[in-house]
Structures are given as structure tokens and as C-alpha cells.
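sorry for the late reply, my laptop died twice this morning and i had to redo everyting from scratch. anyway the thing you sent over, i finally got around to it. pasting the sequence first so we're on the same page, its 393 residues, then the predicted structure underneath. double check i copied it right bc i was rushing
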Amino acid sequence: MEINKNYLNLKDSYLFRTIAQKVNEYKSAHPERDVIRLGIGDVTLPLAPEIVAAMSGAVAEMGRKETFRGYDDTNGYGFLKQALRGYYAQKSVELSDAEIFVGDGAKSDIGNILDIFGEENAVVVPDPVYPVYADTNIMAGRKVTYINGNAGNNFLPLPDKDTRADIIYLCSPNNPTGAVYDRRSLGRWVDYALDAGAVILFDAAYEAYVSDPALPTSIYQIEGAKKCAVEICSFSKTAGFTGVRCGYTVVPAELVRGGVSLNKLWGRRQSTKFNGVSYITQRGAAAALSSQGLGQIKESIRYYMENARVIAETLRELGLWFTGGENSPYIWLRCPNGMSSWEFFDYLLNNANVVGTPGSGFGANGEGFFRLTAFGDAENLREAAERIKILLR
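ok and here's the structure:
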């Protein structure tokens, strides 16, 4: 038998596993030290009361014969699709139920949607980038070309005359850099995709953190995007569903390539390889989008963004260059004193007992940079900020 040898082209370990291993080794050697983690972007606040009530009610329904539910129709229950349509209507974006596909999280759909695209497609990924974009294409044997994000363009690369792409990955607000495309810049990508016949895979996992009304929170707020873009989003960072698992992918009916509807292809893929998200989870997701639910999860988002403000203010005091921290829960800073990303990781861990994420783990252009996350306990985060201030002052 033959294995998929494309897997041999991947790095030996997923970035966050490497970080966890290094931290565990440090803690084993220094059990008395209090390590504060600002590395992995995992939420720490509990689910909102409205979500808990809805999920509890759904559990009770599942315990009664007359209200028990088995499989849904794979693509999501009507009540959640209706809630999502209302959420997008607030962005002045009109969707139909058939264009919304409920899944178990953005990460899964980002990788799985590649099933509907041929291996010969040219893939363009920003550098630095969330590792899943590149790794899933490498697994499939596609060649990945990187487009440079750097301090000069505020880590928001744009297409130019040399760009050649069939599939384009964009994430805004960006993970890892926290940078956010404005309407004009995102419009340039849409115009490029329309001219080139390319498809944009737009990761909107952090859209709820955008507070500036001038900035887009959906690619469909850009004219023409429904003809060239798939939008993938998640309840993980919006509603605290990292341990619950629910997300959604929007594939517009207008998106056609090679005379074939990508909406129909994705629907066919999902009906074959996916059995849907639990009724209990979907009730919780719909509750998150209710008026009360939105109010409660916005309080959580404000909590995290206050954390981001604390980190950003600390870095300003230290005179360190950074992006993010506004309209995004991530802060992307230039390592001090010319340190490499992993040198700064070790320096911060050993001298301040604070964990972040080395920028080089997100690509070659991430070397010399470092990511901190605002998804933490406020008291711990203030302590971490003070430790960083003392160490680097």
C-alpha cells in the first residue's frame, strides 16, 4: 500500500504542539513558577447565560420522545439559518438558507472545502499566516505561493501584477497579526478575483471584534464578492464555542466556476462526508444570535478587548512596534533588541514566565515578530503585562 506522501512535506509538528511541549518541559523543571499563557487563542470566559439556557432546554427536549431529534438535514437546522440570515442582514448582506452551511467550526471547513477544488489550482496564501491554510493544501499536494505581509504594508498584502492565483486565502481581522483590511483594500482583492476567475476563501472568525463601523466585517459587504468568495466563520471566538464546536460556511448561489455551482458541490461534499452539528449545539448557536444573546456575548468581547488594550498600552510605553489590539484580539509585535521569534519566546518564558507565540511559526515573514492573545483572565493578563514591562523596560 501507499501512504499520502504529501504529509511528509509538512513540518514535523504543528506549531501549538511544539509550544505546549516547551512549556510543559519548563513547568516540569520549575514547578514553583506561575506561568501565564498568552499564546493559544482559546477563550476563557464561560458561555453566556442565554446560550446555556437554550442548550439546557435542548437537552431536555432530547430526553422526551415527542421532542427527540436525530439527524438534521446535514447543512443546519432552519432556526439557526434564520438567525444567521438576520445577523447578516444587520451587515446589509442578504443570504438565503441554501447559501448557509452549518459545520463544526471554521478550522474544519477551511480544510474540508478543498475537496471541491482540483489539485492543479494555484494557491496564494499571505505570509505570515494561520498554519492550517498552507498545511491543508500541502496535504492535498498543491503548490502554495506566499504573498508578503510585512511592516511596510502593515501585514495587509495586496495583489499586484505578479500575482497568479486560483485560490486565495484572506483572514480579516487577521490571525496572527490582528491587522484588518479596509473596504478599499478588500475591494482590490475582490476585483482581482473577478478578473482572474479566482476564488477567495475568506476567514471571518474574528469579525465580531471589529468595532470601527468603517471596516468591513464580511467580504460580502464588498460589491461583486458573491461571485468570487466563500466566507467561513465560527462561533468559537464570538460566543466562546471553542469547546462546543459550531461554525458556518457561506457559499453564494452566484459563485460559479467552470459552469458548475460551487454551492452545489459543497452541498454534495457535506452530504457525503459530514453528518451535521448536534441539535443541542445549534440551539446554543441560535441563542447567541438572539438580541439577548448578542448583548451578552458583546460583553465578553468587550472584556477581551480591554485585555487587548492593556497589552497595547504596555507595548506603547515600551516603544515597541505592533499591529492589532484594536478591532482584533491579537497583538503582533516586533521582537525587541533584534531577537529572533524563538529567542524572544525563550527569553519571555524564562525571565517573565509568560508564554506567547513565535511569529516564525506563522511563516518566514513572521521571523522577528511575536503574537500575544487577549483571550485570558483579566487579572492574569494585567500581571503578564506588568512582568513584560519590568523585563523590557
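The CA atoms of residues 159 and 192 lie 7 Å apart.
thats about all i looked at so far, will dig more tmrw
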